[in-house]
């Protein structure tokens, strides 16, 4: 099946995307300290349930969600719900579009993060919401008991509060919100298969645009950005700065409980594994690093040129669902040439892929 760049593919793969990789939760679940193990086990159980629900939704069909009547093009339509530490979705509505901020900082962060994501895609990529057609943005906060993850389930965003031992509130890093919503953009465009290299590309796309959304909210250029995914999410006891680093894959954490960040930066260290859907959260470090190198070489704001090339490939209709890193790299070369000619952008794209040792020609 080929992707449809303007609307829904004929069907969606049953993808359930979380920000925290399952191998991290597996490690925590085996810890001798019940304060660490029990929340991780509950999180894994909920993730397994939601993954099954996502698969069933794909089989029987999800309810269609349209923008409300009178909704203006180019304006978000956000709704935030509170699960009150239960797991029924979506929970009780606590803030709608245009409502003033309340006392719950988690609700306010979720609302603002949905808005920032919408604004970046509309303002800089001319995309009206996740589906390109004004899709309402729904989120649920305070999900589950010490739930240590955030996810996009194909229809909405869900955020846990963390266990406060390893993970803090999942609405704290705006790039987590941007990451998960970008999985929705991938769903409605290239719909990359969630396994192996195409799955790692799926994860990388979410990291790339999540990082751009963070940089946009902070007003940062490529050189000013930290290129960390999930900075501010790890609790004080954890020896680490974030979940992943696009600048230096493999360095985000090195902790006696979590272990060491396993991400490679180049194909020399590509990880072959059956875990994590064939290493989708691990090997995403390679295309992540390629984007970082491109953005650094071009300078300025990362969404201005580097982001435009990546977005053109994601939405252009030529990226196959089972695309390899090399397939994607070659399409970025073609997109750079089509948009910018044979100038510095093309050279920077070729150099970036060469540095991570992915063939791009």
Structure description:
This protein is α+β, with helices and mostly antiparallel strands and 361 residues long. It has helices at 22-29, 34-60, 105-125, 174-188, 196-218, 276-279, 285-298, 306-315, 325-340, 344-355, and strands spanning 17-18, 78-82, 92-96, 137-141, 150-152, 157-159, 228-229, 244-245, 254-255, 259-260. Helix 1 (22-29) packs antiparallel against helix 2 (34-60) and helix 3 packs across helix 4 (174-188). The longest helix is centred in the first third of the chain and has 27 residues, at 34-60. It contains 10 helices and 10 strands. Residues 1-12 and 57-62 have low confidence and may be disordered.
Can you count the beta strands? 10
Total of DSSP H or I helical runs spanning 4+ residues: 10
> Strand pairing plus helix content: what structural class?
alpha+beta
Overall mean confidence score, pLDDT: 92
Query: What percent of residues are in strands?
Result: 5-15%
Radius of gyration, in angstroms, nearest whole number: 19 Å
Sketch the major β-sheet.
Answer: 6 strands, mixed
Poorly predicted residue ranges: 1-12, 57-62
H/E series: EHHEEHEEEHHEEEEHHHHH
Strands in their spatial order, largest beta sheet: 1-5-6-4-2-3
